[in-house]
Amino acid sequence: MDCEKLTETVTTTLTSVGSLFTSHPNSTNTRCGQSTYLAHLGKSCNYAFQAASSAVIFVLHGLFPFVFEEIGPKMIINLNLALCDRSSRN
Predict the structure, then answer these.
(1) Is residue 6 pLDDT above 70, yes or no?
(2) How many angstroms separate the CA atoms of 50 and 72, rounded?
(3) Which residues fall within 8 angstroms of residue 54, CB to CB, at 6 or more apart?
(4) Which alpha helices (DSSP H) does 28-66 contain, by range?
(5) Which is nearest to 71 in space by CA: 80, 61, 62, 81?
(6) Per-domain residue ranges of the chain
(7) Beta bridge partners of 33
(8) 30 strand-pairing partners
């Protein structure tokens, strides 16, 4: 394989791999336009943290029914509203 062909193959491969990480974030719309990979990662981590926090709240409420009687459902409702609002913009 000559140097030009190798360079073309490497460039094509890197472009294909790069698009795996950017095609979905670029297709989503935010209030400020298209999302970048890092912005998408940040939002996803935020949603994951909210969901995990809610799960902990529900487990604690299950163990101790007198704590967190209202906060767990409110957290889930707020997360759902945020996700529905976000998906309606796409």
Answers:
(1) no
(2) 10
(3) 72, 75, 76, 79
(4) 37-63
(5) 61
(6) 3-88
(7) 30
(8) 33
Q: How many CB atoms lie within 10 A of CB 73?
A: 14
Evaluate if residue 89 carries a pLDDT over 70. Answer: no
| 34-59 as b/e: b if 16+ CB within 10 A | ebeeeebeebeeeeeebeeebeebbe
Cα 73 to Cα 16, 25, 76, distances in angstroms:
42, 29, 5
Q: What is the DSSP letter of 70?
A: T
Q: How many CB atoms lie within 10 A of CB 76?
A: 16
Please give the model's pTM, rounded to 2 decimal places: 0.65
pLDDT tens for each residue of 8-53: 675 666 566 667 777 777 776 665 555 777 888 888 899 999 999 9
List the structure tokens of 71: 């906060």
Task: Calculate helix-pair angle for 37-63, 3-27, nearest 10 degrees.
Answer: 50
